[in-house]
Amino acid sequence: MSKYTESAKELLKLVGGADNISAVTHCATRMRFVLKDPKRADIEKIEALPLVKGTFTQAGQFQVIIGNEVAAFYNEFTKVSGVSEVSKDDAKVAAKQNMNFLQRMIAHLADIFTPLIPALVVGGLILGFRNVIGDIKMLEDGTKTLTEVSQFWAGTHAFLWLIGEAIFHFLPVGITWAIARKMGTTPILGIILGITLVSPQLLNAYAVAEAKEIPFWDFGFAKIDMIGYQAQVIPAILAGFLLTFLERNLRKITPNSISMIVVPFFALIPTVLIAHTILGPIGWQIGSFISDVVYSGLTSAFGWLFAAVFGFFYAPLVITGLHHMTNAIDLQLMSELHGTNLWPMIALSNIAQGSAVLAMIYINRKNEEEKQVSIPATISCYLGVTEPAMFGINLKYGFPFLAAMIGSATAAIVSVGSNVMANSIGVGGLPGILSIQPQHMMMFSVAMLIAIVVPFLLTIVFAKTKMNKFSFKKAQS
Length: 477
Prior knowledge:
Blueprint: H1 5-14, E1 21-26, E2 30-35, H2 43-47, E3 54-58, E4 61-65, H3 70-81, H4 88-95, H5 101-113, H6 117-135, H7 146-149, H8 151-168, H9 171-182, H10 187-198, E5 216-218, E6 223-225, H11 234-253, H12 256-299, H13 303-320, H14 325-337, H15 343-363, H16 368-382, H17 387-397, H18 399-417, H19 441-463, H20 472-476
Antiparallel strand pairs: 1-2, 2-4, 3-4, 5-6
């Protein structure tokens, strides 16, 4: 008998039994259930289990936070429950039965951008390093950069752009591939579509504004501008969904004997044509409008208010899953402004949540059982994974979550007020500073300090007042 057997049996009973489970899988720290009737799950008793660090529902899935032991626990749970093992993708498909239209749209966005995040993180670090060695005048009394005095660093600077360009300029290839993969169509067609949006024979998107003459394809009766969509997000999303729409519907009406020839041909060619004549220009305008609105809001006289609202409400957005929408906005800002002032606030929110838990460790320093949950949660939060901290500690008590939200808003005001910009989406939490543009690292460090100190002190203050009687979970129930 495994040490998890009894806990697995108890959890099975509390989620409503095997007949209430449509699908179950796990991620790095959580069991993820798709329940036929979510109301049958006894959340209060589940959270009282010694192994459970918290619960929440997101994207149609009831998620139980176990921690680093989740893989071993999951294996035992599937044995005692008799529920068949499924992949994360299968679980997401099953979860749609519990999702409304908005939740399904957000889930689609998350599935598109999540596979791209590792590349974007690497790209952000590379751009940051290139800025340090190529832009900061740190040598010869502050008159020269490393690349100006060293051929090695000059060569490194040039070489690293090979990777940076592949990640950011050719981002549409990743997006169209991710959409094809997500929608169950042919990934290679998505890749080819993406390449047609960034092909070297097209005028680079960054050169359009300064171009004296834009090349074009001449069909005699019509001309189409040969403009690329390097780093553009929305044109790639629109084109990717059109490709999958055409391919899926063509497969329904095309005989299997000729589908391998007919479907790719009549799905890809019309999509590329429409992408360059309609979807590309429209998507470019939409993307520019969104980035202009966000950037104008953050740099206007009321930028502090925008920052305060975003910083305060970002953590609650994580609970709903709406935070996935910020990935598209960040990428659009990067394509328009060569950086994003939105993402630094996300990193600060992660730090603030971890700091609130750090205060709870201090408050409950004599409680060994509490520390077993709080210490790992703090570490993971400071490294950018907030769920164990938020759902295992902060939402459980309520007042630490509020303290973290206030600290996040305060740090966000400082970040935006100092015009802090990140090169890219990066590693969340404390390592987030590695993605900040070098000239802004000092002020971001100040904002990080605020995100550590303010939630810590507020949590202790709230714990000594009537605020400690308030629980977000009780308020929501």
